[in-house]
Known about the structure:
With 253 residues, this protein is of the alpha+beta class. It has a domain at 18-145 and 205-247: Alpha-Beta Plaits, CATH 3.30.70. It is built from 8 helices and 6 strands, in the order βααββαβααααββα. It has helices at 33-39, 48-64, 93-115, 136-165, 171-178, 183-194, 203-207, 237-242, and strands at 23-30, 68-74, 77-82, 126-133, 209-217, 223-230. It has a 6-stranded antiparallel beta sheet with strand order 4-1-3-2-5-6, sandwiched between helices. A hairpin with a 5-residue loop joins β5 and β6. The protein is globular, with a radius of gyration of 21 Å. It starts with 22 loop residues before the first strand and ends in an 11-residue tail after the last helix.
Amino acid sequence: MAKSKFEYVRLYELDDKLLKNVWMVVRVDGKGFHKFTNDHNFEKPNDLAALNLMNDAAKGVMSELQDIFMAYGQSDEYSFIFKRSSTLYGRRSSKILSTVCSMFTSHYLFNWSKHFNDPLLYPPSFDARVVLYPTVRDVRNYFNWRQADCHINNLYNTCFWALVQDGNLSNSEAEKRLKGTFSADKNEILFAKFGVNYNELSEIYRKGSTIIWNENKSEDGRKRKVLKLLTCDIIGDSFWEDHASYLDTSITD
């Protein structure tokens, strides 16, 4: 960039570099998605096409930013975790946030027609935040929190919409019926009243979507990294033991 007398304005830019040697998690959330899903007639309590669209948007981000080693999504949100050693954009918070959020939105829009026949009535929007986690325990507990949130919300929504759609209750009546209930109560309502065994519902609804990099051998015998979508438990030890290399604790200079 050529020098000019106006260049001094760059001095007003803040240094927003994130700490080194900690894991960066960027979570993207739909903005005003309750209205968006209603206006676009998403199925309740879950719309598989909408979830697959979110997954494609997340894969698009990971394909372009390969410092992301894992992503987890549910409903209208996706969390991306970067390698601890990542130096992407000099670890500038504003650059990382704006890039991930804009890429996710772009891929969501680009893949819309792949999953829905009806055109968009208006563009969706997403916001994002970045959070730093210093220990393996913190990283695991973050994803434990998001998957537990997925289960709690999905159990409630499954029960709520069963009461509305099949039980002929109004929305306010269904809310009143579920007020103060626990998980066991909701499971009992689903099974006794509607014959639904919650644990037999698709895992993508109950456990969310996890995307990881996986090594595959091509026909010529060469190894290449590909993105793999999982719908599995990530709260227990098994997942993390199988992917121990993801949480590398080495220190960078």
